[in-house]
Amino acid sequence: MAVHHRWNAVVLLLLFTFLTILCFFSPSCLGIRSLSRSGANLKFHHLLHFSEAPDYRNGVGCSSTSSPFTHCDPSLVHVAMTLDYEYLRGSIAAVHSVLKHSSCPENIFFHFIAAEFDSLSPRVLSQLVRSTFPSLNFKVYIFREDSVINLISSSIRVALENPLNYARNYLGDILDPCVNRVIYLDSDLILVDDIYKLWNTSLSSSHIIGAPEYCHANFTMYFTSTFWSDPNHKTTAFGSTTRKPCYFNTGVMVMDLHQWRLGNYRSKIESWMEIQKKTRIYELGSLPPFLLVFGGRIEPIDHRWNQHGLGGDNVRGSCRSLHPGPVSLLHWSGKGKPWVRLDGKKPCPLDHLWEPYDLFKGRREREIHRQQQQFAGFVGSASSLIGWL
């Protein structure tokens, strides 16, 4: 009789262990939930859950938007950013910072460019943004990677080869024709100042882009000796400008899309990418083609609008300090990202300035580790009991 009860216990325990294993690998047990908004039921993983941001409202003196609302309203500030699984946490924090410090947050329209074949579909990304910022004015566009994939060459860091890095080259084609001016922002930055100040940057008739310029930087290092030794490149690069070309970071730009479209600057950038495929003239990803077209031909903006390089270099991602002077925007360009370092318990001092804007509540690695420990405990208990039996 005792043996019979023991075998019942073994069967029940094995069944319990099997169901635990099944649950561990089943999406239904990993917390996928269904959210309903505007009649649409969309499911996404709870490990990508973000807290809902405060409902930021316009201050006194803000212009009234047209009724019915349209993103072609001339009173709007247009911001373009990319949106993908890997940098989603950074993008959400960047949007949060823009809204928090804006005098007229309801008059900002975000244009999100999402990859066609990302781990998260544009539809799910849109739902995640909406659930985090319920009153945000935004639109998600699908970036067709095949438009650029054959032009991308290898880089010193694999992340720089992501086709979405090149989406900024196609903003004039992706965004609606009524959008004639846009601020492009990378996903690894935060603003600590009113974006309207950046929006009101004046661009002269000869300048398509406004960005902080760094003429003290070693400009030659961004291109190979093959480039500098070819006299043809020297005469065609940098728009044959008479002014000395200087380095600028493409993560923060005020862009005149009307003039961009008229000048067909997308094709000019693509021409240099085609040369790069045949003869290696640079090592970094999407930055050098921009420099080749616009170096020495941009509207210089105060350095406070791009305190870049906080992610260290492209290899080590070491800690760095701020540049001298006032700060309106902090940019973690480079290998190190604040959310990665914070989660890894190895943050740099400036990463703590990013943290207050982080709305991410899931801790993917921690959750998986906990589930794995639980699973190992179940298996250990089962093995011990079977040995006892």
From TrEMBL:
<dbReference type="InterPro" id="IPR029044">
    <property type="entry name" value="Nucleotide-diphossugar_trans"/>
</dbReference>
<comment type="similarity">
    <text>Belongs to the glycosyltransferase 8 family.</text>
</comment>
<dbReference type="InterPro" id="IPR002495">
    <property type="entry name" value="Glyco_trans_8"/>
</dbReference>
<keyword id="KW-0325">Glycoprotein</keyword>
<protein>
    <recommendedName>
        <fullName>Hexosyltransferase</fullName>
        <ecNumber>2.4.1.-</ecNumber>
    </recommendedName>
</protein>
<dbReference type="Pfam" id="PF01501">
    <property type="entry name" value="Glyco_transf_8"/>
</dbReference>
<keyword id="KW-0472">Membrane</keyword>
<keyword id="KW-0732">Signal</keyword>
<keyword id="KW-0812">Transmembrane</keyword>
<comment type="pathway">
    <text>Glycan metabolism; pectin biosynthesis.</text>
</comment>
<dbReference type="GO" id="GO:0005794">
    <property type="term" value="C:Golgi apparatus"/>
</dbReference>
<keyword id="KW-0735">Signal-anchor</keyword>
<keyword id="KW-0328">Glycosyltransferase</keyword>
<feature type="signal peptide">
    <location>
        <begin position="1"/>
        <end position="23"/>
    </location>
</feature>
<keyword id="KW-0808">Transferase</keyword>
<keyword id="KW-1133">Transmembrane helix</keyword>
<dbReference type="InterPro" id="IPR050748">
    <property type="entry name" value="Glycosyltrans_8_dom-fam"/>
</dbReference>
<dbReference type="GO" id="GO:0016757">
    <property type="term" value="F:glycosyltransferase activity"/>
</dbReference>
